[in-house]
Fold this protein.
Amino acid sequence: MKVKKAIIPAAGWGTRLLPASKAIPKEMLPLVDKPGIQYIVEEVVASGLKEIILVTGKGKGCIEDHFDIHQELEDVLEKNGRKELLTMIQELSRLVTITSVRQKKQRGTGDAVLCASPIAEGEPVAILYPDDLIDADIPVTRQLMEAADRCQGGVIAIREVPEEDTHLYGIIEGEQVEENLYLIKNIIEKPAPGTAPSRLAIIGRYMLPPEIFPILQHLNPSDDGEIQLAEGLVELSHQQKLYGFQFSGTRYDVGDKLGFVQATVGYALKRPELRPRLRQWLGKVIQDEE
């Protein structure tokens, strides 16, 4: 299954990060000196994909602006001799081709994916949720692409979670077919405590065949009018082989306040110019707390 396009659904309200996300899209909140969504786009590029379909909503235009050319700023940086910064923002606008589509009304994750179907329908796609940032030596999207090539089927990212957290995720019921790869038999969305069929939770990376689009198109909306990708995945697993891949890497839920702080510290510690002083400060903070 050869994937060429990636879909990034970025139309949500970001209510878990209010009030910060009231006027600034949560995807644009900075982690050190880069907005969260830039880490997602860089993962796509590092995985060898060059075309992104960005699904946005009202008030999200600054996401597109971030990856566009800013000639006035470039002129100022060039005039002031800020060559390093100039090169950085020029490379940003050259990273990837982004096509933006609008989800005019938020009707669930499945509907957000459907908004991209006029551009992507008929092709397999990668889907990346911006709330999930994954720091990995081999980008998770590439890990899934390689797994999809091996098994010639759809692949979704999974991660083992504590038993007490299974009610927060979609949990797979599956059969292990090779190391880190499971053939999915069923998906239980946010199972009641104590009822989960496993501890393998779905994380926001998907490599899906084109059949996902007609499946989503024909799903009945829930009582609140939403179409969820998770329901489409269940139907897809009944129609053809769908696999769960236990990826390697550190995952941060940056849609959550604690996860956002953890990601900020985690990415800052990877920066040579920040790491020594940050480690020293963190050690002092921990010592003072004790």
User: Anything to note?
Assistant: The chain has a mean pLDDT of 90.
